[in-house]
Amino acid sequence: MENKLKKQIKKTISIAQKEKADIFGFGDALSRTNPDYWRQHKKNWDNLFSDAKISMKVNVNVINSGMRMEPYEPK
Length: 75
Prior knowledge:
Layout: H1 2-18, H2 26-33, H3 35-41, H4 45-51
């Protein structure tokens, strides 16, 4: 499940980068964590974002499968 999810996220990010659309708010996060860098590069952010290498770590924990422990019996 983790690999499938990671693959889907990577594909979505790749599409956003091709469109130069920072739909995930990486620029907003960068402006909060490194405001000096952001001020210097915000005018060129679309190009920087489209060329950025993005890494991620995906962890999936299934808490409840939705399956019933006992079979359903109508009354």
